[in-house]
Known about the structure:
Blueprint: E1 4-8, E2 11-19, H1 24-40, E3 48-52, E4 65-71, E5 83-87, E6 90-99, H2 104-118, E7 127-130, E8 143-150
Antiparallel strand pairs: 1-6, 2-4, 2-5, 3-4, 3-7, 6-8, 7-8
InterPro entries: AraC_E-bd, GyrI-like, Reg_factor_effector_dom_sf, SmbC-like
Pfam families: GyrI-like
Protein name: AraC family transcriptional regulator
Amino acid sequence: MxxxxxxLPEVRVAYLxxxxxxGPAVGEFWKExxxxxxxSRNLLGxxxxxxxxxxxxxxxxxxxxxxxCVEVSAEYxxxxxxxxxxxxxxxxAVAKFRGTGNQVPGAWGLFFAKIQEAGIFRPALCYERYxxxxxxxxxxxxxxxxxxxxxx
Length: 152
């Protein structure tokens, strides 16, 4: 898996939290909960982020937390049920992903292995970044995103 090292800026986001096993349920959360909320707040057409708060290899599946986030301006009023967070600025290894939701965990596994092998991993939150013009092919379920891992 190819990647680039990039300096990424700090981003203010509004998010909704999913709690439970990672995998297909996360995609359903985006579809059934986050996207309708995003639409109701007139936040479509903005960069979105998926932030896994826990490592599923050490956290029980029922306790794993995942935040579906949308970038918002400094002035945007964030109201419940959404919460506010900041995605930290810094150096990240960024890999392009193109595939289906079922392929995301495998892509993360390969990417983590490559970064750990290179010895440049920096302990901090990793995330998926989805472009403002994000689209999923309705027939194949294929979409594009960037996988971002913090590095030294």
